[in-house]
Write a structure and sequence with these properties.
The longest helix is centred in the first third of the chain and has 13 residues, at 20-32. This protein is α/β, with parallel strands linked by helices and 154 residues long. The protein is built from three helices and nine strands. The strands form three sheets. It has a five-stranded mixed β-sheet with strand order 1-4-5-7-6, with no helix packed on it.
Length: 154
Amino acid sequence: MVLDSIGITSDRSYEGYIDPAQIAWLSRDLAAIPTGTPVIVSTHIPLVTAVEDYAPPPGKPPAHQGMRVRNAWQVLDLFDHYNVIGVFQGHTHVLETVTWHGVPYITGGAVSGNWWHGTRLGTPEGYLTVRVEKGRVIPDYVTYGFKTIDPKNT
């Protein structure tokens, strides 16, 4: 299942948000699958992340919650009733796994690393591959040797 976690704000910016129509769709779609069916979810802005605990704070507080989905609790509550075996996320450009209620929330780094200027908080440029074995997701982060030409990162 793929969720659109980009909520457009009234000032033409964005925030992490899953709107009510999408939550209703997700609820109906999950209810329609046979009990025990493994479910994998993908979303751009993370539902669960610890990045705000280890990333340096921005110069000024952001106007909107853009690092994580601000109403994630509504989605996580749904996941507790189904066989969600993994959630794949992006946006922060770090490789991170946070497990909540037995579900791994895996943020998969970025091919561009720190926006083509080296690593991002220790995560090198790369991409995530995933295998599913015996009802479990097994991620593997693949780096590819990109070297920035940014003078401040050489």
